[in-house]
């Protein structure tokens, strides 16, 4: 692994490599940005580069230090992650105990703190003291999706580096280079803001089948078939967690957007290109206005999944809204509540 393998974060990588090259590394960094955009990968790469015996601004991946850090068994490079919902003061005390001795003179200790916004106030204050009174050369890297949730006293001692959400193009190209089929890589890229999440999605067994089920469900919805409601129970919700239900709605939205592009004559490459023949068939059943109404219904259902309503009730309401319009949905509201 090299800094060159970190996708879509060229500015941040350039800053870190310049710091390594000119020996101007900060004693603490805060890597902030969406989940799955390479923050943790960059932190481990920095840890290797700081301790690499062969290179000054990257990691060789061959020396003893690089290999030990890569395999997570270097005694001077540690990751701290939440235990349960928070990072607790006892974890920081244990960290200080582990680092109470003096390391070898050519070693830079690195602490990587995952979900740093989840530190309790006591843990954050303990870390602050540790940063202000280091026992040896040390770099702390805080990883967070919400830097504002970290205590200002901690933030003020960190160099802030922002990681940007990756474009679908960046994600799809990276997945293709890893051997993912181009059509599926493109779909996964549009479902995620980061490479890690997209990789997790597309490598799950049944990802292509889920796409096909959602496309078939779309056909049932637009035809007005009652099978669209049966599909909710037998396929969309069958043995699926809430995350897969959310993915199903995201796929449905992408599919409807592709059809809308066809309907209005926009010459753009469809996201779900693998199923172009089915898309052309379904396109003849939709009108542009009905697609817009349907996409609004899907987005509303996606938001409702974060609330207290049961997914089955939400999905049934969405299907009936698309099939019958808003008036029909209001007239059946009691049946939704009963089904939840």
Automatic annotation (TrEMBL):
CDD domains: AAA. Transmembrane segments: none annotated. One of its GO terms (molecular function) is DNA-directed DNA polymerase activity. The keyword Hydrolase does not apply. The keyword Nucleotidyltransferase applies. It holds the Pfam family DNA_pol3_delta2. Keywords: Nucleotidyltransferase, Transferase. GO terms for biological process: DNA-templated DNA replication. Its EC number is 2.7.7.7. NCBIfam families: holB. This is DNA polymerase III subunit delta. The gene is holB.
